[in-house]
Specification:
The chain is mainly alpha-helical and 226 residues long. Helix 6 packs parallel to helix 10.
């Protein structure tokens, strides 16, 4: 954990990426909720009257939390210091999961701030706690998968830190690893709603699916990362 924090602090650009990852979703949520509050959106975009508005909002926040994709290039960001991993006694799995924890923490903080805004604007029910747990779990799933390619193919020869974080093809490849699980779970959730499954029951079913997915991913990754 300390090493990953040190890597992030090594460049001002990486610190900015962390700040953007934490604030992007809440800022967009605040803008959207403010526009909805003042009826400043066209009628076809105003979905507050829809019974599934909370689900739409939750998955919207999820994709904004993942949009910055900080977890896609954690090894590339180490640059010239990446060689230290080969000569330190640190367990490779511990290094990997420390990167997952850091990126997931950022996403969950952004999610928490967004849901606090959601509650402040008057959209809050007990079921939303379950939605918060689902989206938190999906953020973890995403961050478990996106660093896999970068771990095996890091871009460590760079002079400009933006090359390591954003001008890196690993960013796009990491999306192929991480996005499908988000899209599949979201499709299942909305599919259950469209099949007229009671909203709370659908949410509980999806939450169980997310928990099972996290457990399976953890077990699988512990075996293949070494």
């Amino acid at each position: 954990m300390q090493r990953e924090i040190w890597v992030i602090q090594s460049e001002a650009y990486f610190k900015m990426q962390v700040l953007l990852g934490v604030l992007l979703a809440p800022i967009i949520s605040a803008i959207l909720l403010t526009l909805l509050h003042f009826d400043a959106l066209p009628d076809f975009l105003n979905v507050t009257k829809d019974e599934t508005f909370d689900i739409y909002f939750s998955y919207l926040v999820l994709f904004f939390c993942c949009m910055n994709n900080v977890s896609g290039t954690p090894y590339s960001r180490e640059g010239k210091y990446h060689y230290l991993l080969k000569c330190t006694p640190l367990d490779s799995n511990l290094v990997y999961f420390s990167k997952v924890i850091i990126s997931s923490t950022m996403g969950i903080i952004a999610l928490l701030l967004s849901f606090l805004l959601f509650a402040i604007f008057g959209f809050w029910e007990v079921e939303h706690l379950l939605l918060f747990m689902i989206i938190s779990g999906l953020i973890i799933c995403y961050n478990l998968l996106t660093p896999v390619y970068d771990m095996r193919n890091p871009l460590t020869e760079w002079e400009n830190p933006s090359v390591a974080a954003k001008s890196n093809t690993n960013v796009l490849i990491s999306l192929i690893y991480g996005l499908p699980i988000l899209l599949i779970i979201a499709a299942i959730h909305f599919g259950l709603i469209w099949l007229n499954v009671q909203s709370l029951l659908a949410t509980v079913i999806v939450l169980l699916m997310v928990v099972i997915t996290i457990v399976l991913l953890l077990n699988r990754l512990k075996k293949v990362l070494i």
